[in-house]
Write a structure and sequence with these properties.
heterodimer; A: Elongation Factor Tu (Ef-tu), domain 3; DNA polymerase, domain 1; seven-stranded mixed beta sheet; B: alpha/beta; Gyrase A, domain 2; Rossmann fold; six-stranded mixed beta sheet; 13 strands; flat
Chain lengths: ~650, ~450
């Protein structure tokens, strides 16, 4: 591996200040995961990989890994998360490769450091594949049932209440050392379509009020968010001839480092199609805007700005004459077309009228209308960086319940929560990734000091060390860390090593060969020029072509060469900040009582309780002088404690 | 604290306070910096317990100054790190040049109370002393904030804000392009990025030019004259300062009053400010006048209320005034009816009572001993602002080169982000959320 050894191993984490459960406290399972969505899957699989006795509790054992929004994985910032999950042994990338029907690499013209894979999957195949994987994994038990509440230890404990398991609707009680809650949008969820509303987090499924109540009772702060979904159309009712096809990449590149090129793509590849809204459709939306729940004030939750409803688009960007609609097939065998771009909660008849005004959709048949969902989430500032609740022992949360959006964000959290629940239950050290190591680290780090007003979505602009966090070398960045904790097995680690050996071999040859027409320069130096591409050099240079490098190796080497100077600088900056990142703020330190802090900084620090000085510095409103003052208090506290403890 | 890596530097003596000025250096690279700047003598850096005073000449890159260096090898120093003290001639420009030289070599301007903090952190101070340290740092934090406000009001704040705005506009376009598809953001032509880059670069150059033109801020205590028009305020200011303004009303600055040095005797000097016109009636009525006054008053150690002794009604004293100065005492004064403040009668024309006034001011300034000025904090901040602007310039220039040479957008964006980050101390921190906010406001995003 290259010099990616992180200075983060000694970072303080709160959950593990809690005592690990004593042998007599251990339940029938080490880890119970509640919820069979994308967070739950990665959580239970991660726990099992670490040797924990793990179980997944879900409403329906045949609906594990349901894609409740569009069946697409990846995208800017998100594709990197999936690659990282894969490098840590997660399931999402492999399942995507097995079931993907269109693959595209985004941002190819914008730089290797920000390239991101995206894929369209067959919804049913994906669900079946993930269900198969979960069921086939040894150490994972799947339990069908509806969780109605927690079993909480009644013993008075200075560390706060302790979750001992869950209670099911049918009266069963399951005990465990740790519980990972990944219930998505199912908490007190309400669905809106126009004036009508129904309880439920996803069309056709029920909601859970008992859990909401128990979370309140445990003192976890709960907020409310809103999200929406567009209508689904019948494929045979679309006038395809009028629409512009959007093909995938040829040849497609797989998501997983493990997927064999020779057997990829697995599924037949299909096109998506593009159409646009128009002034007539906009006029219809505007005329009926009072019937949209958001505008009528019936929805209190805040919708995501990065995924606005078509109502929002039309009202906020009135000058735009058209907006894109991607018509994405939900699978190879299904007739369902997902209308990406017109998320709406207008009444069904209005949806039909404005859609029928759009080219290619004049006679479209609605299989399902768009709707908005409001749901409860737990303020993620109540969690530490293992995604454990700070104030409740044995409880971990991951996914949309933490106020995030997206399968990828959910899966990434699932891995962190599931792994740490298992590690805690087994009395082992926590597994935490730093911001310079992975987008997963950025995600968790951001979350635990945030107060989301919209579902949190990953963007590459959130990563200050973006140039260090490329999608192409996630295996190099993370496999060794995963292997050290037990998330990654020997075969996967060896694959990463093998790829790295190829990278080094190609790099060596590049450094030995001379640049064309510049005998004084190595080919590597020539490659630094912006217009020079390594794939072209390989094709034109027999010595390079002889290595027959894999496209993924070519990308990694090219990026290594082109970003070398920047990478060095970002590393230096990581080291400069390492001190703050490694300095824990003791949870018992009274942040509200620090005199000299400005009002805003004091309030934010007291509310968000950052775990480290580094985290405190990332809170908006906490400025350098505040941080300097905080540092002194932390140090004084440490010394006082050392004096008391050491005599 | 684990892994302290920076080497900090600061001027440790109050400005204009004596014939000798002390520049202090602490941290792992102290020896390296001494080696790089000291001519004609070298302490035995490698000796295990080296410590002592060494005479030589300090090379600030432009000239050589006589210097005596007190070298203390860690842990036998106040901070338990390697520490060097440069004892230089007390002239302000020389000290500044020396500090600049050390910063250019890689030293970092010390934060308020940082030497003490390091001493505390290294275990040099015991627990009872720690309380004192804390109080000091809190005070220093407050003082730093005041000093920063003072500096920024000179006009840099507006420039820094505009610069941040320009950089944010450029950053927004880059980041939107990187985080969203062209179908959503529309095609972003390089020419548009180049135009935004040019605009940001121009404002940055202006800010730098302005910063450089401006002298380092005075570290003197500030005494403010407040009074209604025509009470003899300006005449008094002229008499006390000799009429030499240090700062005149410059276009583009928010200062519209005069500052001058006032020798108080006994080696004491303060900055006398002919404050904005003020009358009790103006309070609440004229928002602009009130704001000007409030700002001047906030940054003054002492406020002198100037009234015309030949006029009867003076009204209530301005907020913060601690001394009443009755002018034109050579004329027939009206008996003073309301003495709510200690008062002194002076005559600028007859030069009567001026010595007493100086004494009274000295007495009031001495115990206060404002920390910001005593530790040269204002100057440290000044250096830090310069450094921040320089860093912003370097990063932005890099972004410009990438843009011009056709490098990928992620590299262009990196320079822009670094440039924005360099301004954190100056214009407040820019968070990813600030950038996203702008992206969402400008582009209709989301499929």
């Amino acid at each position: 591996m290259t010099a990616t050894d992180p200075p983060s191993a000694a970072e303080p984490v709160l959950a593990h200040l809690h005592r690990a459960p004593a042998a007599r406290e251990r339940g029938a399972h080490d880890v119970l995961v509640v919820g069979g969505g994308h967070a739950g899957i990665e959580a239970v699989l991660a726990a099992a990989r670490l040797g924990a006795r793990a179980a997944l509790i879900t409403f329906r054992a045949d609906k594990i890994g349901e894609m409740s929004c569009n069946p697409a994985i990846g995208g800017q910032g998100k594709g990197q998360l999936v690659r990282e999950l894969d490098a840590l042994g997660g399931a999402m990338a492999c399942a995507t490769d097995a079931t993907g029907i269109q693959f595209r690499m985004l941002n190819t013209a914008k730089g290797l450091a920000v390239q991101a894979p995206r894929a369209q999957c067959d919804r049913h195949l994906y669900r079946d594949e993930v269900t198969r994987v979960v069921r086939a994994t040894s150490g994972v038990e799947v339990i069908e049932g509806a969780v109605e509440g927690f079993l909480v230890s009644t013993a008075v404990d200075p560390d706060g209440p302790r979750v001992r398991g869950v209670r099911l609707a049918d009266g069963r009680e399951l005990t465990a050392s740790a519980v990972v809650l990944t219930t998505g949008t199912f908490l007190s969820a309400v669905m809106h379509t126009g004036e009508s509303r129904a309880a439920g987090g996803r069309m056709g499924e029920s909601t859970s009020h008992g859990l909401s109540r128990d979370l309140h009772a445990l003192g976890l702060p709960v907020g409310r968010l809103k999200t929406g979904t567009p209508p689904r159309f019948a494929a045979d009712s679309i006038d395809w001839g009028k629409l512009k096809p959007q093909p995938g990449d040829a040849p497609p590149l797989p998501f997983s480092f493990a997927t064999e090129r020779a057997r990829f793509p697995v599924q037949r590849q299909v096109d998506c199609f593009l159409t646009y809204t128009n002034p007539a459709a906009h006029a219809l939306i505007r005329a009926n805007i009072h019937r949209a729940p958001m505008y009528a004030g019936r929805i209190q939750g805040v919708g995501p700005r990065y995924c606005p409803s078509v109502e929002d688009k039309v009202m906020r960007f009135a000058e735009r004459e058209r907006h894109q609609i991607f018509l994405e097939p939900e699978g190879l065998t299904t007739d369902v077309i997902y209308a990406n771009g017109i998320s709406t909660s207008l009444p069904g008849e209005i949806q039909e009228r404005f859609v029928h005004a759009i080219e290619g959709l004049e006679r479209v048949r609605f299989l399902r209308h768009g709707y908005a969902v409001e749901y409860d989430f737990v303020q993620p500032s109540a969690l530490d960086r293992t995604l454990a609740a700070r104030a409740v022992r044995g409880l971990y949360l991951a996914g949309q319940i933490n106020g995030t959006s997206g399968y990828e964000e959910a899966g990434a959290q699932g891995l962190i929560a599931g792994a740490n629940a298992a590690l805690w239950a087994l009395g082992r050290e926590p597994f935490v990734l730093a911001r310079h190591e992975a987008y997963i680290g950025v995600l968790v780090d951001d979350l635990v000091v945030s107060q989301p007003r919209e579902p949190y979505r990953m963007f590459s602009s959130r990563a200050e060390y973006r140039l260090l966090l490329r999608q192409d070398d996630a295996d190099r960045r993370l496999s060794a860390r995963g292997a050290a904790v037990g998330l990654v097995g020997a075969a996967q680690l060896e694959r990463a090593h093998a790829r790295q050996r190829e990278v080094e071999a190609l790099t060596r040859v590049l450094e030995t060969l001379r640049a064309p027409r510049q005998p004084g320069h190595a080919l590597a130096a020539y490659l630094r020029r912006p217009e020079v591409r390594l794939s072209e050099l390989v094709a034109a240079t027999p010595e390079l072509a002889a290595l027959a490098p894999d496209p993924s190796v070519v990308t990694t080497v090219e990026a290594d060469v082109k970003y070398a100077g920047y990478v060095e600088r970002q590393r230096a900056s990581v080291e400069r900040l390492a001190r703050d990142e490694a300095t824990a703020i003791p949870p018992e330190l009274d942040l509200a009582g620090i005199s000299g802090l400005r009002g805003e900084a004091r309030e934010k620090l007291a509310a968000l309780k950052p775990a480290t000085l580094g985290a405190a510095g990332r809170i908006a409103g906490v400025n350098p002088p505040d941080l300097a003052l905080l540092a002194v208090h932390v140090e004084r506290h440490r010394r006082q404690r050392a004096q008391r403890g050491g005599g | 604290m684990p892994g302290v890596t920076t080497t900090i530097a600061a001027i440790a003596t109050p400005a204009g306070s004596g014939r000798r000025g002390i520049l202090r250096l602490s941290g792992p690279r102290a020896a390296e910096f001494v080696r790089a700047t000291l001519r004609d003598a070298q302490p035995p850096f490698d000796a295990a317990a080296s410590r002592g005073l060494f005479a030589g000449r300090f090379d600030d890159g432009r000239g050589l100054q006589p210097v005596r260096v007190l070298w203390m090898r860690g842990p036998r120093s106040f901070t338990r790190e390697d520490v060097a003290e440069f004892h230089l001639p007390g002239a302000e420009p020389l000290l500044q040049a020396a500090l600049r030289r050390l910063l250019a070599l890689g030293a970092v301007p010390a934060r308020a109370g940082e030497f003490t903090r390091r001493a505390f952190a290294s275990g040099r101070l015991d627990l009872s002393q720690a309380e004192g340290v804390l109080a000091l740092t809190e005070a220093a934090n407050e003082a730093e904030r005041a000093a920063a406000a003072l500096l920024l009001e000179g006009g840099l704040d507006a420039r820094a804000a505009e610069l941040r705005e320009r950089l944010l506009a450029l950053c927004t376009l880059c980041e939107a392009s990187l985080d969203f598809d062209e179908g959503e953001t529309g095609h972003v032509p390089r020419a548009e990025l180049a135009a935004l880059w040019g605009a940001a670069q121009q404002v940055l150059e202006e800010a730098l030019a302005w910063e450089t033109r401006r002298a380092a801020p005075s570290a003197l205590a500030r005494v403010l004259l407040v009074g209604a028009p025509n009470v003899g305020k300006s005449t008094l200011w002229n008499a006390l300062t000799g009429g030499r303004a240090l700062v005149s009303a410059q276009a583009g600055t928010t200062r519209d009053w005069l500052e001058g040095r006032w020798e108080l005797g006994g080696g004491w000097t303060c900055l006398l400010i002919d404050g904005p016109g003020w009358t009790p009636e103006a309070r609440g009525a004229d928002a602009k006048a009130q704001e000007l006054f409030a700002r001047a008053q906030r940054h003054a150690e002492l406020v002198l209320w100037v009234v015309d002794s030949t006029q009867a009604e003076a009204g209530a004293p301005p907020i913060g005034a601690s001394l009443l100065v009755r002018t034109k005492s050579e004329l027939t004064p009206v008996p003073c009816t309301r003495v709510e403040l200690p008062s002194l009668a002076v005559s600028a024309h007859a030069r009567h009572g001026l010595g007493e006034l100086a004494m009274a001011v000295r007495t009031r300034l001495a115990p206060a001993g404002d920390l910001a000025r005593e530790t040269g904090l204002a100057r440290v901040l000044f250096e830090r602002h310069q450094l921040a602007l320089q860093r912003a310039r370097t990063a932005l220039a890099e972004a410009g080169e990438c843009l011009a040479a056709g490098y990928s957008l992620d590299l262009v964006a990196e320079g822009v982000r670094e440039s924005l980050a360099a301004l954190d101390d100056l214009s407040g921190r820019t968070t990813p959320e600030d950038v996203l906010e702008r992206i969402f406001a400008r582009f209709c995003l989301g499929k």
